[in-house]
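Same chain as my last thread, 83 residues:
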Amino acid sequence: METAQIKSLIESGIPGARAEVSGGDGKYETTVVSEHFRGLPAVKRHQAVYATLAEYITGGLLHALTIRAYTPDEAPNEAPAKT
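reply #2:
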């Protein structure tokens, strides 16, 4: 699985999301910024990201995913650009 594919799945599955993805060999890290996360606790934010990739997780193509999920105003400077 390629990082660009993971990025595309996350961004198309979460309204207004901007994602950065790194890693390989089934182990990836992502930072996702979306207004959709406003008011959601961390576990719900992570569940939203996992839901966009469920097919690949259950299929074994994605083994590990570290998630950092922010609203636009929470995002650190290195997070994907706010839109």
